[in-house]
Amino acid sequence: MSLLAAFTLTDAAWVVVGGLFGYIYVRYKERVRRQQLADDRRLALEAAKRDAESILREARVTANEEAINLRSQAELAYVTRQQEVAAAEQRLTQREQLINAQLEGFLQREKHIQCQQANLDARETALEKSRIETEALARERRAQLAQLVNLSEADARAQFLKEAELAALRDANEVSRRILSEAKTRSEEQAKRIVSLAIQRYAAQHTYETTTATITLTGDEIKGRIIGREGRNIRAFEALTGVTVLIDDTPGAVVLSGFDPVRREIAREAMQRLILDGRIHPTRIEEVVAKVKEEMDENVRKAGEDAIFRAGVPPLHEDIVQVLGKLKFRMSFSQNVLDHSVEVAHLTGLIAAELGLNVPAAKRAGLLHDIGKALQQDMEGSHAIIGADFLKRLGEADDIVNGVAAHHDEVTHTCLWGILVSAADAISASRPGARSEQMDTYLKRLESLEKIGLSFPGVDKCYAVQAGRELRVFVQPEVLTDDQAAALARNLCRKIEDDMQYPGQIRVTVVRETRAVEFAK
After folding, report:
1. For 70-82, what is each residue's pLDDT tens digit?
2. What are phi and psi of 517, to 5 degrees?
3. Which of 405, 430, 455 corresponds to the end of one domain?
4. By residue range, what is the domain housing residue 284?
5. 395 Cβ contact partners less than 8 Å away, ≥ 6 residues apart
6. Over the Cα atoms of the chain, what is R_g?
7. Biggest alpha carbon distance in the chain?
8. What pLDDT, in 10s, does the model give residues 360-402?
9. Is the dihedral angle over the CA atoms 247, 264, 434, 200 positive or is it negative?
10. Shared domain check, 463 and 392
11. 3-class SS at 465?
12. Closest CA to 382 of 395, 391, 370, 367
């Protein structure tokens, strides 16, 4: 019993000890676990802090990069805006300078106009004063005449009116001569400047061409082959080409005669090909002429297109191009009309540019001004009117049509193109080496010039000098006064402009002189 009790007490002690150790162990494990949890929490917190710092650094870097980019874009936009503002300021400055220059010009013109107005007012005042004085003197003179000569009032008035008419005419001639002289001086200076600039800027070669279509033969035996048996070859050739073949005794040459330059060129080319080929008979002649005609149409079109290109004119109607190309085979006083038209187009364009006008339209009128010469053999009338009608049918503008029709002053000018074309035409035709005028035409022009001078009353002698460039007129001093001589010069110029056609200009010089002759014995 005592052993059992002792054993029981021992077991209980061990149980208590074991329970105590178990409690201590459990508390230890609990403390270790809590310590582990605290360490894990601390480590997680440190990791979270590191992650937060990393994210914060990345955010700061990204923000800095974006800030740098935004700053760069802002600086670029600022620089661009500054450049735009500077360019706008420069344009405004230039515009302001231009406006100031124009305003200064307007002020100068206004000042000039005011000066002229003041001069006119002063002249008007002086004229009114002179008129009042003249009326007073006239009344006094009329009264004196009536007293001295015992004239009636009507006779005195008639005599006074006649003297007043002569005085007024003399004063009017003096004023008109002074006004015309001033206007002529200013206009001539401006016209000479414009024309001289146009001539200097356009450099063209001298032109000298002939219209003779002569075929050179290698031997006289070829003439017989051209004529053919009983003349059948030459008859076939003339019937197909529309030209006349002249075979005379001249060795080594055959002359082709025809009024149509295109036909004459076709005949010349066909004859040369037949001579080179050697086979000359009606069938072969027909084949060669047909082939040359086809090629001639193409050559004419190409010549027209080339002229349009050289003149710098926009494309034209196909019919106009075809007719324009025919001018390549037409001559005017040995000057090729197509080359002359291109030259006139350039000169007209240069003059228009100096005047601030439409240059393409001016060139167009200059190029087409002689197109009627290619149609003239098919219809009656002036080549200017024929060409204008042709262009109007094909839809050309009215100002171009009027420029072509009016370049010889045959119709009224409705625009400036006719005047510019007329000036350029005169420049092209009258420059040295451009044309070779025939002797009979030259003599007829001189005779017509002298006849116009002698047709006016009071003219004693009249001479055309300087190759027709000047008309020198000697008047009777007892018939015409100095004022009437000046008026005669103007009337002669108008008569020459209305009745004659001539290149360049003609100077009219009226000479009035009084000679006193005595003999010493």
Report:
1. 888 888 888 888 8
2. -120, 125
3. 430
4. 213-430
5. 317
6. 52
7. 219
8. 888 998 898 888 888 866 677 788 888 889 889 988 889 998 9
9. negative
10. no
11. strand
12. 370
